[in-house]
Amino acid sequence: MRKVFLGIGALALICIAGIVTAQASPQDQAPPSSDQNSAEATARTASQPDQGTKLRLARMDTSPAAFRKLDKDNDGRISALEAADNPRLAAAFTLADKDKDGYLSKEEFEAMGAGTAPP
Predict the structure, then answer these.
(1) For the CA atoms of 69, 17, 92, 51, what is the dihedral angle to 10 degrees?
(2) Under a CB-based contact definition with an 8 Å cutoff, are residues 83 and 25 in contact?
(3) Exposed (0-12), middle (13-18) or buried (19+): which is 48, by Cβ within 10 Å?
(4) In this structure, are residues 57 and 114 in contact, taking their beta carbons and an 8 Å threshold?
């Protein structure tokens, strides 16, 4: 029963983190000149972390040892539940999961510290 509550709590945390990171402050967005520009600006904002997020992720340990420590079930990927053990990772999980499969691969995890997208 405890695992169920932990799972629900972790999913709630990830959902909240996704909502918070998806919202950009009005200062970060330039006024769009048309509907097409608006859609492009929204897509760029949603896929690119803001400067503060980049700085926090740059300070995060994304070494292979850190990946192994977070990968509790040793399946070669970090699930949302496993990410919930690390508040920074949990907050950035939705941005880091580039292929949106619900898991972070080693490449996605390492790219968080590098500030670049995985190949």
Answers:
(1) -150
(2) no
(3) middle
(4) no
The predicted-structure confidence for 3-61, as pLDDT tens digits, reads as follows 776 777 767 667 676 666 666 555 555 555 555 555 555 555 555 656 555 555 556 78
The domain ranges of the chain are 2-23+37-114
Contact predicate 77/71, CB 8 Å: yes
What CA–CA distance (Å, rounded) separates 101 from 109?
A: 14
Query: 41 in helix, strand or coil?
Result: helix
| CATH number for the domain formed by residue range(s) 2-23+37-114 | 1.10.238
Could you please report the per-residue DSSP string of 60-107? S--SHHHHHHH-TT-SSSEEHHHHTTSHHHHHHHHHH-TT-SSEE-HH
C-alpha span between 103 and 98 (Å, rounded): 9
What is the pTM assigned to this prediction? Answer: 0.50
